[in-house]
TrEMBL record:
GO terms for molecular function: catalytic activity. PANTHER family: NODULATION PROTEIN U. Residues 2-71 form the Carbamoyltransferase domain. This is Carbamoyltransferase domain-containing protein. It comes from the Bacteria.
């Protein structure tokens, strides 16, 4: 299976290519743009996909966008609670969520040849757990544990 993981909604936009369960390439967008953390963690920066990191991962893997099985987007807007329900004052949170809902179309626009239906929303904590589990896959008795402060939902950390 050929999976491109994309993190883009808050800060440190990045991409990783996982081929048959093994990380083949990974990069943060700041390595290409030289902007620390890639974009500012504000709603107006949420539209910035890690386009160069995504393309680099595909180049390293020798793949075209249409060769991907799924693209895993590291946030599920359907699971997000409104910011005021979490005690946060964020008048622009609706804009961030609106962008996330349209991420499949934006991602397909950034990667011509990608079918927007290939983009799958993944709960944010599951994305963290996957990155930890893939990084430590040679250690048999390791299990990632997570604590996130603001994201879509608190999900079990079992990979």
């Amino acid at each position: 299976m050929r999976v491109l993981g994309v993190n883009a909604l808050f800060h440190d936009p990045s991409a990783a290519l996982v081929l048959d369960g093994h990380v083949h390439a990974a990069a943060e967008e700041e390595r290409f743009t030289r902007r620390k953390h890639g974009n500012r963690p504000v709603p107006f920066g949420a539209w910035e996909l890690p386009e160069q990191a995504m393309r680099w991962c595909l180049d390293v893997g020798g793949l075209a966008p249409g060769d991907l099985d799924p693209v895993a987007y590291s946030f599920d807007p359907a699971l997000a609670k409104p910011s005021d329900e979490m005690g946060l004052l964020d008048p622009w949170d609706w804009l961030r969520l609106r962008y996330a809902e349209r991420a499949p179309q934006f991602t397909a626009s950034a990667l011509p040849g990608l079918n927007p239906a290939a983009v799958r929303f993944v709960p944010h904590e599951v994305s963290h757990a996957a990155s930890a589990a893939l990084a430590i896959q040679t250690v048999d008795d390791s299990q990632p544990r997570l604590l996130a402060m603001r994201t879509d939902v608190f999900a079990p950390a079992d990979p």
